[in-house]
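hey can u check if this looks right to u? its 80 residues, i copy pasted from the old doc so theres a chance i mangled smth
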Amino acid sequence: MTDETEGAMSTGDRLVYMANQIARNLAAQGQAEAEAMVADHIRAFWDPGMRARIVEIARERPSALSPIAAAAIGRIAAAA
């Protein structure tokens, strides 16, 4: 019998992946604009628990996030 969770991402890893993916998709807008757009997207579409968890992860593992994602999450944390 195989473990159904084998190879599955943790919730935290999934949030990091999503934040980095959003940042990557918006990077062409330029650093400052992309940071603002990523922060706006996370505020608009992520539930409060997801936002709180990504802020926590940013503090625990800052190197897990791309520079744009990290700055956007920093904006979210500062506004909280």
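Residues 46 and 75 are 15 Å apart (CA to CA).
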